[in-house]
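Hi U.,

Before I forget, here's the chain from the pilot set. I'm dumping it here mostly so it's searchable later in email.
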Amino acid sequence: MSGHSKWATIKHQKGAKDAKRGKLFAKLIRQVEVAAREGGGDLESNATLRTMYAKARDSSVPLDTIERAVKRGTGELEGVRYEPAAYEGYAPAGVAVYVEVLTDNRNRTGADIRSTFSKLGGSLAEPGAVAWQFARKGVVLLPKSGGSTPVEEDDLMLVVLDAGAEDLADEGDAWRITCEPQVLPQVKAALDEAKIAYDSAEATMVPSTTVALGTAEDAKKVLRLIDALDDHDDVQGVYANFDIPDEILQTVEA
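Structure:
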């Protein structure tokens, strides 16, 4: 399993802890609110809202909290108006970083993001500098040993390709399924119907190439910046094109 994919799994596990603190809840609620404002409050006609609604429910956000967020988005309830923005830059070791935010104050958020890059050895770049290195995809990570019976590659491939997935990759101790973002709900539904357990399923930005981090020190510097950006209340997603060899990732985790 590549270092980047392993870190994605670690982030997913960390997200479960964040949810207990309420940080993840707040970010998911903001995503629901913006989706409702931009495309309306009807789940059937608003695909983005449907995705964000499901993501919030999967993370155990209370139903009434989600519904209030939808109403704030549609204007039925009063609330702060958030708008999307993106920032691009470089982490130490030349790693490309793409940051997505929802903010009610672009100047404040932009200054915060710039400061975080600067303090932790990175640099903010001009729009378009690194975005071309990423493509938005739906990604599902699932353990090879998940469930009572390990899933066979041929069986898994049949299930996910029929649901519209583009690729099934062997990541060592896990499988990685890639699809177009709009197909992700169908892929999840097909896995659920086949009773195949998965660790995470989300729309994300996938790098076209990766930068190998050759030392634990470089890995720590990059991950320190990624974590600091991800911890900002306005940040909804941080994507980077690093790859950490197994032996270095084990050192960093320790």
